[in-house]
Prior knowledge:
- By secondary structure, the protein is of the alpha+beta class.
- The protein has a domain at 10-38.
- It contains one helix and two strands, in the order αββ.
- Strands 1-2 form a two-stranded antiparallel ribbon.
- The longest helix is centred in the N-terminal third of the chain and has 14 residues, at 10-23.
- The protein is elongated.
- The relative contact order is 0.10.
Amino acid sequence: MEKTNRELTAGEKSRIKKLVKANCANYDSEYGCLPYREPRKTKGFVGRGGAAE
């Protein structure tokens, strides 16, 4: 069986992009799916709008 390369149709590209956006934790329109990084924990952070000590 011979494989042939072809360009994706606009509909196929759209469906792929929709799947990537839906399954990506950190999507950027310019760079695509970026690796997810855990938020940094800040020492002294109160969390309810209070000031750090």
